[in-house]
């Protein structure tokens, strides 16, 4: 690993501190080096707050060192006025002579303009260091801007014999049936804190009455996305408690929006998945976890509209019930979460 790669790798490490808190902005890390030593570091913490380059420059105690320094940044410095001033202008103003960038920003508001601004000011610019790793860091951001849809994570838990739920019993209480252990449950809630939205279908809400929150992990609750074609979800369901921003997609035109609870109409005579993704894009949601149930998840699999699948396999067996989604599990990453097995797959199609 050469010197540039070493410092961009550090930028990536710093940027990861912002996972789940920077939306709709990307995660970005920045390192400033002078005479072979790091003299400043920073990362973007939250949308509307200073960017990584600002934190890095502000952390430099002796600003006179900047005139002979190199600033490393995992993503192209912005060149436009948003909630904060352009970082490219800040670099120029501080007379930093060299900039090393991991990857170009796919956002059309930037997309090379920041690099151009730096070069026009006579700054030496190097682009494309650990480019794939920097794009992977912001896979949600890149998918959103390049494919005009959120990054899609499929997630479910299944029994040893391939069921996501047992056959329902008479007078079944509306509550989840736990297949995994408490460590896996906590991990699933950590994942929720890292994504912008979480989606389930009608049957999951009717059977499990889920909260879809991050109660077992510190972090922001994702926006809840509910598919309720015929308005069958009871008013006392947790997903309608108005505690978290919630989008309900339905055919019922008579629903009234409430605080944190918005109803939108879909054409259920057509395939709803492309419509749904278009709406989530319009709502500026960069990532979504599809948590159920089998029918809902299978729609995304069949259309090959998914980026990642995370599948827990517990130790329990049900012998009958609701079968798990069918997905070719080729070359998954396999992890152990105490007694559970976790399979992680990426869709490279």
TrEMBL record:
EC number: 3.5.4.26, 1.1.1.193
UniProt-listed InterPro entries: APOBEC/CMP_deaminase_Zn-bd (IPR016192), CMP_dCMP_dom (IPR002125), Cytidine_deaminase-like (IPR016193), DHFR-like_dom_sf (IPR024072), Eubact_RibD (IPR004794), RibDG_C (IPR002734), Riboflavin_Biosynth_HTPR (IPR050765)
Keyword Oxidoreductase listed: yes
Cofactor, free-text remark: Binds 1 zinc ion.
CDD domains (alphabetical): Riboflavin_deaminase-reductase
Domain annotation CMP/dCMP-type deaminase: ranges: 2-126
Cofactor: Zn(2+)
Catalytic activity: 5-amino-6-(5-phospho-D-ribitylamino)uracil + NADP(+) = 5-amino-6-(5-phospho-D-ribosylamino)uracil + NADPH + H(+); 2,5-diamino-6-hydroxy-4-(5-phosphoribosylamino)-pyrimidine + H2O + H(+) = 5-amino-6-(5-phospho-D-ribosylamino)uracil + NH4(+)
Domain of life: Bacteria
NADP among keywords: yes
Molecular-function annotations in GO: 5-amino-6-(5-phosphoribosylamino)uracil reductase activity; diaminohydroxyphosphoribosylaminopyrimidine deaminase activity
Alphabetically ordered keywords of this record: Hydrolase, Metal-binding, Multifunctional enzyme, NADP, Oxidoreductase, Riboflavin biosynthesis, Zinc
Pfam families from the UniProt entry: dCMP_cyt_deam_1, RibD_C
Pathway(s): Cofactor biosynthesis; riboflavin biosynthesis; 5-amino-6-(D-ribitylamino)uracil from GTP: step 2/4; Cofactor biosynthesis; riboflavin biosynthesis; 5-amino-6-(D-ribitylamino)uracil from GTP: step 3/4
Stored PANTHER family: 2,5-DIAMINO-6-RIBOSYLAMINO-4(3H)-PYRIMIDINONE 5'-PHOSPHATE REDUCTASE, DIHYDROFOLATE REDUCTASE FAMILY PROTEIN (AFU_ORTHOLOGUE AFUA_8G06820)
Protein function: Converts 2,5-diamino-6-(ribosylamino)-4(3h)-pyrimidinone 5'-phosphate into 5-amino-6-(ribosylamino)-2,4(1h,3h)-pyrimidinedione 5'-phosphate.
Family note: In the C-terminal section; belongs to the HTP reductase family. In the N-terminal section; belongs to the cytidine and deoxycytidylate deaminase family.
Name of the featured protein: Riboflavin biosynthesis protein RibD
Natural source organism: Flavobacterium polysaccharolyticum
Gene: ribD
């Amino acid at each position: 690993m050469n010197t540039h790669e070493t410092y961009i790798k550090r930028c990536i490490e710093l940027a990861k501190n912002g996972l789940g808190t920077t939306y709709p902005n990307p995660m970005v890390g920045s390192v400033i080096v002078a005479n072979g030593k790091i003299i400043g570091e920073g990362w973007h913490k939250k949308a509307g707050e200073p960017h990584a380059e600002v934190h890095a420059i502000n952390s430099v105690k002796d600003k006179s060192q900047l005139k002979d320094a190199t600033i490393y940044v995992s993503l192209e410095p912005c060149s436009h006025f948003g909630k904060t001033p352009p970082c490219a202008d800040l670099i120029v103003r501080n007379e930093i002579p060299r900039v090393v960038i991991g990857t170009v920003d796919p956002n059309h508001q930037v997309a090379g303009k920041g690099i151009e601004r730096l070069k026009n000011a006579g700054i030496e610019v190097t682009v494309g260091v650990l480019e794939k790793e920097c794009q992977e860091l912001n896979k949600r951001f890149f998918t959103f801007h390049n494919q005009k849809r959120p990054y899609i994570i499929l997630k479910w838990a299944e029994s040893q014999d391939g069921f996501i739920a047992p056959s329902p019993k008479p007078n079944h209480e509306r509550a989840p049936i736990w297949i995994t252990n408490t460590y896996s449950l906590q991990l699933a809630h950590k994942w929720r804190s890292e994504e912008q939205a979480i989606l389930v279908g009608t049957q999951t809400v009717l059977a499990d009455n889920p909260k879809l929150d991050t109660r077992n992990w510190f972090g922001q609750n994702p926006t809840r996305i509910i598919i309720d074609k015929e308005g069958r979800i009871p008013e006392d369901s947790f997903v309608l408690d108005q505690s978290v921003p919630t989008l309900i997609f339905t055919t019922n035109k008579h629903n009234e929006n409430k605080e944190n609870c918005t109803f939108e109409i879909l054409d259920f005579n057509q395939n709803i998945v492309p419509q749904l993704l278009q709406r989530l894009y319009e709502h500026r949601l960069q990532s979504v976890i599809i948590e159920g149930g089998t029918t809902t998840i299978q729609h995304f699999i069949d259309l090959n509209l998914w980026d990642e699948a995370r599948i827990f396999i517990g130790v329990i067996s049900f012998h009958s019930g609701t079968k798990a989604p069918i997905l070719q599990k080729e070359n998954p990453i396999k992890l152990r979460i105490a007694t559970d097995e976790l399979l992680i797959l990426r869709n490279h199609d």
